């Protein structure tokens, strides 16, 4: 399966090569750049190259690998920062310096590191495909080492091992390794999908209280330039109630990713007290990296997330921003001279995004455990126009829509989530959970809060005409209460002690605001003036 480059157009390369299939991974040029076959016409293959093609020449070799683009999965993924092709960036920097260039000899997982293998099965046991034969502990996570094919075990090790050597052998001498490779475009299998009903606490009051997330759900927050997308993604990454966080920096600034890593190293996980990095995997494809590799980074990240989900964990995938992936699809599609769809995006944009969102969910794994993969993705609509194709395509498939409002951001109301336009399709189910477990009045308070904010919307128009003084005392009280809701409840400074708010405190805060409102309202009914009613109620 060797061929030759016949043409190059940016990241798209045509090659004369036989025996390759669609989506096969090929190595392009003398440098062995990683690419994927995206079109086949007889012996002519069109290859999408995920690395910088600068200096690549016609006539250079193209070598088929006989398989698809894969990720390597196993112990050692956690705390690592990868690029879209799963190169461990810190080890690459140590080897070749800060400017990454193709280097195939640095494996994604450190094959020299020692792990402790605890066998579940012994020599002579008959095992089925996918059956667990032992486990390796990586910090708080337990990796299940499974048999790739059915057979009888000839030898099973116990104790110290590296990823380079087999932890067990079949009777025919073939080895079973603790690491496995999985094609990124193929969703990992599970026994069955479960309805996502358990809340995912983010620690952001506006989300947990008004637009709750569930484990296994999907959320997007579109917002124009500077509306706080990155800060919101990072705050959720720090405080969300997930076992593991996979954070994808897709086409964003490199310095933001560097700061994030530095912060994660020093910050502690609320639940375990360990460093936040010990529950985080970062996949970066910063704005200066090849655009086409954004496609690879998204799929690499989701496959890693699925692998940890299959260990029975609640995994949260955060991507900032999904629009940069959309832009990459547009660029790739135009270099392939495909028929453009809306605004130049490929016609398959919606189906590609929908298939990606389908990989989220709560599942019963093949081993009978319950795991979930939740996705919270930021969207950067150009010019803050939410009618653009990527936002619209995401809207059709996501359960939570958090609209970041430029006007709120300009008035420094953060997180700038517009409470009138956003929604959560999971709210009904999750409210019951919070009502039963956190505060009996949760559902009722949520309802009242929504009503107050809605009534304020109407009153605001009246107040603009007659002035606040022209309003009746009852209406002025309502305006005062909603101002408190907005400033003290919906606003949350990501840099202070208030960055995380547990559901109990969220309920207490809302309870206090509503109690004050009720006392003052009762005072008004008894004929007190607003000032007297507020003083009496305070
Ligand atoms: N919760 C918050 N608390 C305090 N400040 C915030 C909060 N969210 C955002 N900000 C402020 O808003 C600024 C812009 O936020 P951020 O960089 O996340 O926006 P963005 O939407 O990702 O921008 P871009 O479109 O450039 O990627 C931050 O530098 C910060 O000062």
Automatic annotation (TrEMBL):
An example Gene Ontology CC term for this record:
proton-transporting ATP synthase complex
Domain (ATPase F1/V1/A1 complex alpha/beta subunit N-terminal) ranges: 5-66
Output one GO BP term: ATP biosynthetic process
Indicate the segments forming the ATPase F1/V1/A1 complex alpha/beta subunit nucleotide-binding domain, all copies. 203-424
Q: ATPsynthase alpha/beta subunit barrel-sandwich domain location, by residue?
A: 106-185
Give the protein's function.
Produces ATP from ADP in the presence of a proton gradient across the membrane. The V-type alpha chain is a catalytic subunit.
Query: What family does the database annotate?
Result: Belongs to the ATPase alpha/beta chains family.
This chain's protein is named V-type ATP synthase subunit A
């Amino acid at each position: 399966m060797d061929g030759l480059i016949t043409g190059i157009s940016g990241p798209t390369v045509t090659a004369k090569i036989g025996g390759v299939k669609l989506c096969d991974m090929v190595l392009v040029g003398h440098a062995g750049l990683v690419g994927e076959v995206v079109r086949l016409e007889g012996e002519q293959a069109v290859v999408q190259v995920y690395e910088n093609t600068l200096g690549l020449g016609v006539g250079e070799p193209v070598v088929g690998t006989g398989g698809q683009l894969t990720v390597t999965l196993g112990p050692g993924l956690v705390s690592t920062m990868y690029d879209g092709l799963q190169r461990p960036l810190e080890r690459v920097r140590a080897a070749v310096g800060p400017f990454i260039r193709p280097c195939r000899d640095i494996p994604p997982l450190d094959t020299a590191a020692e792990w402790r293998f605890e066998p579940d099965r012994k020599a002579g046991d008959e095992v089925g495909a996918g059956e667990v034969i032992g486990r390796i502990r990586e910090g708080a996570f337990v990796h299940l080492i499974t048999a790739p094919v059915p057979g009888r075990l000839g030898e099973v090790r116990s104790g110290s091992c590296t990823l380079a050597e087999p932890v067990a052998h079949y009777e025919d001498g073939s080895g079973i390794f603790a690491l496995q490779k999985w094609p990124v475009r193929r969703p990992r299998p599970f026994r069955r999908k479960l309805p996502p009903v358990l809340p995912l606490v983010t620690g952001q009051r506006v989300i947990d209280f008004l637009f709750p997330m569930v484990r296994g759900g999907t959320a997007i927050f579109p917002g124009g330039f500077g509306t706080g997308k990155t800060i919101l993604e990072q705050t959720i990454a720090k405080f969300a109630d997930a076992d593991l966080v996979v954070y994808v920096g897709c086409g964003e600034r490199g310095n933001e990713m560097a700061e994030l890593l530095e912060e994660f190293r020093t910050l502690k996980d609320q639940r375990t007290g360990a460093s936040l990095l010990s529950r985080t995997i970062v996949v970066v494809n910063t704005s200066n990296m090849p655009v086409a590799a954004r496609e690879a980074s998204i799929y690499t990240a989701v496959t890693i997330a699925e692998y940890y989900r299959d260990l029975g964990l609640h995994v949260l995938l955060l991507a900032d921003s999904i629009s940069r992936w959309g832009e990459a699809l547009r660029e790739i599609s135009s270099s392939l001279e495909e028929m453009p769809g809306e605004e130049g995006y490929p016609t398959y944009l919606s189906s590609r995004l929908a298939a990606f969102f389908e990989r989220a969910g709560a599942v019963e794994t093949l081993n009978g455990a319950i795991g979930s993969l939740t996705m919270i993705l930021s969207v950067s609509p150009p010019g803050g126009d939410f009618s653009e194709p990527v936002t619209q395509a995401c809207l059709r498939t996501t359960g939570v829509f958090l609209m970041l409002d430029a006007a709120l951001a300009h008035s420094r109301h953060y997180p700038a989530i517009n409470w009138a336009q956003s929604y959560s399709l999971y709210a009904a189910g999750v409210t019951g959970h919070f009502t039963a477990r956190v505060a009996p009045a949760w559902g009722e308070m949520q309802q009242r809060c929504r009503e107050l904010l809605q009534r304020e919307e109407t009153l605001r128009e009246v107040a603009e005409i007659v002035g606040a003084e022209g309003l009746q005392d009852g209406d002025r009280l309502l305006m005062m209460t909603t101002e408190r809701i907005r400033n003290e409840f919906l606003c949350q400074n990501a840099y202070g002690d208030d960055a995380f708010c547990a559901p109990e405190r969220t309920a207490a805060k809302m309870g206090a605001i509503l109690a004050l409102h009720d006392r003052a309202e009762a005072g008004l009914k008894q004929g007190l003036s607003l000032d007297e009613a507020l003083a009496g109620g305070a």
